[in-house]
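An instance noted here:
***
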Amino acid sequence: MSSVRDDPAMPLYYFLLHLWLHLGDGEAFIRSLSLIFFVASVPLIYAVASRLAGTRVALVATVLLTLNQNAVHRAQEARGYSLTLFLVILATYLAIRLIEASGRRVLIAYVATALLAVTSHAFALFAVSAHSVVFIVARRHRVPWRTVGMIVGVIITTGLLLWFGPLGEAVRKHRFSWIAQVPASRVLIPIGVLTGQGSGRFPIPYLIVSGVGVIALALRLRNKDERWKAAVPLAWLLVPLIGSFTASFFYPMFFARYLVVVVPALIIVAAIGVTTIKPSFAAIAVSLVIIFIATQSLNAEYRETKNEEWRAATRSILARAEPGDEIIFFHPNGANPYAYYVENADATSRAPRMLWPLNDPKTGGFVRPPIESIPNKLEYAKGRLWLVNAYDSLDERAQILTDDIRQAIVARYELEDFQIFRGGIRVSLFERAT
C-alpha cells in the first residue's frame, strides 16, 4: 500500500486497487478499474440531470460526459479520479432523493457515499459542502434538514480533521507543492480544461452555453418550488471552484485534475444552457459545434497520447543502463510507472539509481524533496545521468523549473542520446563533461 503514501489524497482508490490486483496485474486490467467507474457514471449523470431538469437536459448531459476528453483521459489512468467522479455523482443523486422523499435508508446511503467520496479524494469535501448549501435551500420541503445538516457537518468536520492531521500534511506537502498560483486573469483556463474541449479558444462555445445555463438557473431560483433544483448544479459548480481558488492563496490547489468533482456540474449546467437557447435550430447548431470540438479533442487524445509508452521507455533505459548510472524524474508521477515496469522485469538491481524522487525503504514508495533541490543533487552524481521529462506542461512553474534543471545539467554533462516516446515522455542520457 505504498501508493497511499505516494498519493495520500485518494486512499480509497488505492485500497480498492490493492484488492483489484488480486484478480490480475496486467497493465490494461489495472487501468480497467478506473474505466468501470467512468462507465458507471454515465447512467448516473442521466439520473441526476433528469430529476433536476428533465429528459432533454439529461440526454445532452449524457452525451457531453461520454465525449468529455478530460473525463475519458482520467478513465484510462490507474488513478482515483474516475472513482471520485462516480461517488460525487452518486452522492448528489442520493442528496436529491433525500430531498424528494426523505427516509432513513436514503439518509444512511447518502452519508456512507459522501464519506466514501471524501476518502476517494480530498476535493470531494467541496462537493459535500455544496450539498449542505442545497439542504439549506430545500429546508421548506419534507426533509429532516436539521438531521441532514448535522450529518453533513460531521462529514465536513471529519474531512477537515483529516486535512489538518497527518494525512492533510502529506497531501499539502506532496501534492500541492509543485502547483503554481493561478491569477484571477487566467482562472478560466483550468475551467476550460474541465470542458474536455481542448485548449486555447476551443472551449469558448462550451463556456458560453455554460454561462447561459447559469443565468437560466439563477432565474429559476425565484421559483420557490423549483429553487432547490436550481441550487443543486449551481452550488455543485460554484462551491468547489470558489472554495479551491480561495484556498489557493494559502496552498495552491486550483488545478484542473483535482477539480474533477466539478465536471458533472459543469456538464449539467452546459446541457441546461443548450436546451435553453431559442430557436431550436440555434440550439442544434451550438450542440453540433460542441460535439464536433469534443470529438476532435478525443481524436487528439488517442492520436497523440494514446498509451503512454512507459513500458517502452523503461525497456529502453534498462537495455542501455550501465553500473553507476543515476536517474532523475522531473515530475514524480513518472517514477511510479517506471518503478512498476522495472519490478515486473525483475531488473531492480541493474536499473539506474534514483536521484529524485528518492526511494523510501520503509514504504517502498518515494520521498519527494523540494523539486528546486534537483540542481544541487547533480553535484553529487558520479556516473551517467538519465533525465526523464514527463507531464512538464502542467503549468508555467513546471516549465521554468525544467529550464533551470537543464541549465544545471548542461554545465556538468554532455548529451549523449535523446528519445521521445508517446505520451510526452522524453528520455535524455548525459555523460559527464570531460
